[in-house]
């Protein structure tokens, strides 16, 4: 929270955004694909609100004074502390953005294990990070977009697991499928305001894949296939995927 408080209180950081037409809200920007997305957004001078835990990492990475970044601390696995949503609202509500881009990226593959062996609190955390947090973020963003007469573009970082049952990933598959349906329903409710795109980034060389490769076969029967993807050099670099996604955001921004 220190980083967020410092940026909030810093004259100029938010107020300078008044003349900006677009803002990006991204969840899970401290590692993996999200961190590459954030790096690419900032190198293109796009005002960005990053939501995640361990945001002090962003201060170390980008410097605490970076002009276009506001970082909001949030553990998305906890559904009881929603101060981050109120902070997000404060960042957006008084500005004159014509477009809000929500990059729903934070994700957690855990619990990895067969259904009968997963603990209830692990299943709850998975649903909180992979489904409830995207719903809460979208709910706040659409309300503000309506109030600002702005467009809301949702880029849902989805997965093949949203369509295909993968033994050992029941909570992740279910939440990813649920998020997809949730965003499609959102778009159907607000056709004049909301555009939703689902992005399956492919198999990425990130911490999530490392966790998958480290799973015991009894918990994740296909583990050898994922070990082979890494050893055969078939994982995609997240920086390449991030560059494609940011290029598509830039091409659709209001001039
Ligand atoms: N990796 C793949 O092969 C693959 C394939 C298809 C889809 N995806 C999707 O791509 C997206 C990015 O995944 P990735 O591969 O970059 O994974 P990653 O390296 O594990 O990064 C996940 C991000 O989500 C954040 N996160 C996780 N739990 C959180 C929590 N409780 N509160 C706040 N933030 C939390 C992480 O924060 P911390 O830095 O604090 O951990 C991190 O920034 C996910 O939606 C994933 O489902 C990945």
Describe the protein in words:
The chain is built from nine helices and six strands, in the order αβαβαβαβαβαβααα. The chain is α/β, with parallel strands linked by helices. It has one domain: NAD(P)-binding Rossmann-like Domain (Rossmann fold). The relative contact order is 0.15. Bound molecules: NADP nicotinamide-adenine-dinucleotide phosphate. The site of NADP nicotinamide-adenine-dinucleotide phosphate has 28 residues, from helix 2 and helix 7.
Number of domains: 1
Continuous helix count: 9
Q: Count every beta strand, where a strand is a DSSP E run of 2 or more residues.
A: 6
> Looking at CATH, which topology would you report?
Rossmann fold
- Rough shape? globular
Major pleated sheet: 6 strands, parallel
Rounded average pLDDT? 92
Write a short abstract of this structure:
By secondary structure, the chain is of the alpha/beta class.
Q: What labels describe this entry?
A:
255 residues, alpha/beta, Rossmann fold, 9 helices, 14% strand, binds NADP nicotinamide-adenine-dinucleotide phosphate
């Amino acid at each position: 929270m220190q980083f967020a408080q410092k940026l909030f209180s810093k004259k100029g950081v938010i107020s300078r955004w008044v003349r900006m037409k677009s803002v990006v809200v991204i969840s899970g920007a401290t590692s993996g694909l999200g961190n590459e997305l954030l790096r690419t957004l900032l190198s293109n001078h796009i005002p960005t609100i990053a939501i995640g835990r361990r945001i002090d990492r962003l201060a170390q990475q980008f410097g605490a004074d970076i002009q276009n970044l506001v970082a909001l601390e949030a553990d998305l696995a906890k559904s009881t502390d929603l101060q981050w949503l109120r902070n997000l609202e404060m960042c957006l509500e008084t500005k004159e953005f014509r477009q809000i881009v929500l990059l729903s990226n934070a994700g957690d593959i855990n619990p990895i294990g067969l259904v009968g062996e997963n603990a209830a609190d692990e299943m709850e955390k998975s649903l909180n990070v992979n489904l409830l947090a995207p719903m809460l973020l979208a709910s706040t963003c659409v309300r503000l977009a309506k109030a600002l007469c702005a467009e809301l573009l949702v880029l849902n970082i989805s997965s093949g697991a949203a369509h295909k049952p993968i033994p050992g990933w029941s909570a992740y598959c279910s939440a990813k499928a649920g998020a997809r349906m949730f965003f499609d329903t959102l778009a159907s409710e607000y056709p004049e305001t909301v555009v939703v795109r689902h992005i399956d980034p492919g198999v990425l060389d990130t911490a999530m894949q490392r966790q998958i490769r480290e799973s015991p076969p009894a918990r994740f029967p296909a583990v050898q296939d994922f070990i082979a993807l890494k050893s055969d050099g078939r994982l995609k670099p997240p920086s390449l995927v991030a560059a494609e996604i940011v290029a598509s955001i830039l091409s659709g921004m209001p001039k």
